[in-house]
């Protein structure tokens, strides 16, 4: 299980700082050392990555960072994730049974995908059939994909606070199209909480991939 923030080592705090500062040359070797040499829990390393993305997102919203920084941050985290994910899969062994279908995407106006990618991966190895439709997904695309894929759960991802309105708009469109009774909606992202869930009209929110898997298990009646 990932460690609380107050229990991070100095090197773990350094990794978060380097990632947030776009210091790719130092951050990537340290992350790879954690994963491959020090055998740090890969889920904890991904939690450190998400902490760094919290900082990046705040800097973007305050006008300190712009789109190139978001792209670079995403590339760094994808590189770390490519090393971490096989380690998670090897430890968990994966799951062959398909419990149900989950459609997931980042709402329009938001280009973040590291959290969505981790949730997709964790659902996959826990036996769910997942369709990831990418980032900056317009409302019409969500509706089109829902009608084609027929999921039991729809996951809306969004990291920036501007995504809250996009989530609300997307869920309202599900209601307007008459398709909302057919599935549950979960939302997730860096700043999501119960207030945001109520604002958007989602059924539930998750603060990390483990919670997202738990929600899907509960809704589909899958034993833990």
From TrEMBL:
* Pfam families the UniProt entry points to: B12-binding, B12-binding_2
Q: Which SUPFAM superfamilies match?
A: Cobalamin (vitamin B12)-binding domain (SSF52242), Methionine synthase domain (SSF47644)
Q: Which residues form the B12-binding domain?
A: 99-224
Give yes or no: UniProt keyword Signal: no
Q: Which UniProt keywords apply?
A: Cobalt, Metal-binding
Taking every annotated instance into account, which residue ranges of this chain make up the domain B12-binding N-terminal?
Answer: 2-96
Q: What is this protein called?
A: Cobalamin-binding protein
This chain's source organism reads: Sphaerotilus microaerophilus
Name the lineage: Bacteria, Pseudomonadati, Pseudomonadota, Betaproteobacteria, Burkholderiales
